[in-house]
Design goal:
The protein is of the alpha/beta class. It has 4 domains: 221 residues, Rossmann fold; 92 residues, Rossmann fold (3-Layer(aba) Sandwich); 76 residues, 2-Layer Sandwich (Alpha-Beta Plaits); 85 residues, Alpha-Beta Plaits (2-Layer Sandwich). The chain contains 21 helices and 18 strands. The strands form 4 sheets. It has a 6-stranded mixed β-sheet, sandwiched between helices. Strands 5-4-3-6 form a 4-stranded parallel β-sheet, sandwiched between helices. The chain has a 4-stranded antiparallel β-sheet with strand order 12-13-11-14, with helices on both faces. It is globular, with a radius of gyration of 24 Å. The termini are far apart.
């Protein structure tokens, strides 16, 4: 980017109109997190905005600067969550008509929140991509102005006011950890902060299964991911914005990834410091702080970008906080199928470790495959536990870092599958009535289903593990692609084989 463009962007941040609707969010010291990482850590509380998300800033800045003819025609946006609420509230404040296109799978709490601000809602498709595609058609039909969630200079400038506030609230700041989805927030913050304080390190944080910005920066061109994870749905973006990428390429010092478990652990950490629950995407900054090698004299800021999480998701989140914080380990273990073998395993290996989960089903008369999770004090304790299994001759596989095992296998019990010709897929299912019927219709009747595991994620989509007896899966995958199901084939690793066989 040329110096002129950078100067203009900094000016746009300084003149951005956000405070008619947004607050200057507080910057709070996170004492427990600071103690854990060994330096001073602060939380930028964007979860306290009127719509519980930073998205309000950019939406309002864009809408506030529309021309009079544009205002008369109203605005339109496609979103399944935070951006939708931001646009709806911004339009209400400006007295404009707003039309929001949302997927049919959007939880009712989010749809109701958008409607409460006076916006009209149309529910279309099963995913954000479906809604966004339909939105293009509605833009042409209505003449409304499209408000992009991240790839617009005025939206970026609005998000950049977060950076201005941080520099004013904490002049000694050394590191800023920013959640990254489409890239609008990190582009605005990085451009402003680097112009005034080039020494500040700007670190983007993405989920390990949705790292479009990290890969794009490494390859120095925008890439499109074939598949993105759905856990941190607020940042599940396959391609970052063009404006955002150009700014990030020159202004972001590092872009790191964190696992689902680490995100859950960060949510717990934020709760312990603030007694507030952020959404998974909103905890990315804190998760990044926990994983980064920060110097002892650092003054790091983690942005809590949002708190729009449905209550029903909390159980699943809580399940994974222990592994994310290194306090739980999960294994697939083979033990003899005979009386007294479980007692022997507990005596020889478990000892004083607390069992947090145990799954087993009789399947073979010679040996049994069990899934066991135990509480550990840290990596050294986990290694000692594994050494005990080795010493006593127990064949085992570590599942602690296997997302597929933790998301599906831990909830499945025994039963051997086909010995040959089984193909296993992880498929993203829309959370709506009739989704399974639509899926089976798309697949057809030529393949026998050999495995199926689904567990509601209390979100707009869920992950399903499904197996087919299919020696040749090309036609099967063509059918899935035609029906627009997001899927990936799973290679049956040793750990999964042990528990499923």
């Amino acid at each position: 980017m040329s110096p002129v463009i950078i100067d203009d962007m900094v000016k746009d941040v300084l003149t951005a109109r956000v405070y008619d609707v947004a607050i200057e969010s507080p910057l709070e010291k996170a004492d427990k997190l600071s103690c854990s990482v060994g330096c001073s850590v602060y939380l930028k509380r964007e979860d306290l905005q009127p719509v519980h998300s930073f998205k309000l800033r950019g939406a309002y800045n864009k809408i506030a600067q529309l021309t009079e003819p544009e205002r008369k025609k109203g605005v339109i946006a496609a979103s399944a969550g935070n951006h939708a609420q931001g646009v709806a509230l911004a339009a209400k404040k400006m007295g404009l008509s707003a039309l929001i296109i949302m997927p049919r799978t959007t939880p009712s709490i989010k749809v109701d929140a958008v409607k409460s601000h006076g916006a009209e809602v149309e529910l279309v498709g099963d995913s954000y991509s479906d809604a966004a595609e339909y939105c293009k058609q509605r833009v042409k039909e209505t003449g409304r102005t499209y408000i992009h969630p991240f790839d617009d200079p005025l939206v970026i400038a609005g998000q950049g006011t977060i950076g201005r506030e941080i520099l004013e609230q904490l002049p000694t700041v050394t590191h800023i950890f920013v959640p990254v989805g489409g890239g609008g927030m990190i582009a605005g913050i990085a451009t402003y902060a680097k112009a005034l304080r080039p020494d500040i390190r700007i670190i983007g944080v993405e989920p390990s299964d949705s790292n479009a910005m990290q890969i794009s920066i490494k390859q120095k061109t925008r890439v499109t991911l074939p598949h993105v994870g759905i856990f941190a749905d607020g940042v599940a973006v396959k391609q970052v914005g063009e404006y955002a990428f150009k700014a990030a390429l020159h202004k972001v010092d590092d872009c790191i990834t964190v696992t689902t478990d680490q995100i859950c652990a960060a949510m717990k950490s934020i709760f312990e410091d603030t007694r507030s629950i952020v959404e998974p995407a909103g905890a990315l900054g804190a998760a990044g702080v926990a994983q980064y090698n920060l110097p002892k004299d650092a003054h790091a800021v983690a942005i809590c970008s949002g708190a729009n999480v449905t209550f029903e998701r909390l159980q699943q989140i809580a399940e994974r906080t222990l592994i994310g914080s290194g306090r739980e380990a999960m294994f697939a273990v083979t033990i003899p199928e005979q009386p007294g073998s479980l007692r022997a395993f507990c005596t020889d290996v478990i000892r004083d470790h607390n069992i947090s989960e145990f799954n087993y089903r009789l399947n073979d008369r010679k040996e049994a495959h069990v899934l066991v999770a135990v509480n550990v004090s840290g990596p050294a304790d986990k290694q000692k536990f594994m050494n005990k299994m080795e010493e006593n001759g127990y064949i085992h596989a570590d599942l602690s870092d296997d997302d597929l095992a933790k998301g599906h296998i831990r909830h499945m019990i025994g039963g051997s599958g086909p010995k040959n010709g089984e193909k296993i897929y992880e498929i993203t299912f829309p959370e709506r009535p009739g989704a399974l019927g639509d899926f089976l219709q798309a697949v057809g009747t030529d393949w026998n289903i050999s495995l199926f595991h689904y567990r509601s994620a209390a979100s707009d989509s869920s992950s399903v593990l499904i197996g087919f007896e299919a020696a040749n899966s090309n036609e099967l995958e063509r059918n899935l692609s035609k029906a627009n199901f997001d899927f990936r084939q799973v290679q049956r690793a040793t750990a999964i084989e042990a528990f499923l066989s």
